[in-house]
Amino acid sequence: MAPIKLIVAGPRGRMGSEALRMIEKEEGFHLVACIDRKHDGYAVKDIETLPSFEALIYEDAEACLSTVEADVLIDLTTPEFCYKHTKLALEHNVRPVIGTTGFTQDQLDELTELAESKGLGAVIAPNFAVGAVLMMQFAKWAAKYFPDVEIIERHHDQKRDAPSGTAVKTAQLIQDVRNPHKQGHEEEKETVEGARGADIDGMKIHSVRLPGYVAHQEVVFGGMSQSLTIKHDSVHRESFMSGVKLAAEQVMKLDLLVYGLENLME
Ligand code: NAP
User: Fold this and answer.
1) Taking the model in full, what pTM does it have?
2) What is the average pLDDT value for the chain, to the nearest integer?
3) What are the backbone angles phi and psi of residue 246, rounded to the nearest 5°?
4) What is the pLDDT of residue 126?
């Protein structure tokens, strides 16, 4: 079978450079171009820190997508640009695999519709770590029996959106099985604003941002004389790459937008 032709956006980034290292090892993938904010017209191999690919770098995403023949765009830039890149990719019949988080519901609805009207696969995965996907599924299961729950997510201090896409996705999965209700004391009052965290249907979400972290989450359930904690840690960005690989392979078989890696896992 011919290798899947990939464009990577954000190749100098921590996730993007890890994705290039993964692609280098995979016979089923062929890097055809990169989209970056710098180095227009250079080959990837000319950038000292990146693997030795002949593929060219484009600063203009539209120029890249209309010039280069590609199957899949793996976008690992920032939430501000990712929406635009996803839309452009679909318009140019390239299947997007998106790891950036922070889409609004309106943006997701629009992209879902666009993918459907084009009959093209697209994957948006708030978390590419297979362990984190399992954590979310286990949390949904546990919430049936423990409806009082708080989510604590910890990320490196360069992360721009809060709460993390994984925390929001976890809360959404729990919403499927938990009746909305206020948690804690009826008359609870914050003496310092924000002390109890963000609120989704009464579930609290706490976002920690510190140097030294990569991506970590605890889902803490409280019940009668017992508590249950489901915890996942990504300690290196390598942990996300088996999910990126799975998404780039599976997106070729899809004709609609799939949100969440769990929908690609058996
Ligand atoms: P990062 O190190 O800051 O990398 C982002 C890269 O994107 C930088 O090289 C940046 O260039 C580049 N960039 C920004 N805007 C661009 C544009 N318009 N066109 C081309 N390149 C652009 O961040 P990271 O830690 O790798 O994370 C990247 C994204 O992946 C984030 O959105 C993060 O939330 C997401 N993420 C997802 C997962 C997951 O499992 N789904 C896991 C971790 C991270 P400059 O250096 O010039 O700014």
Assistant:
1) 0.85
2) 95
3) -60, -45
4) 81
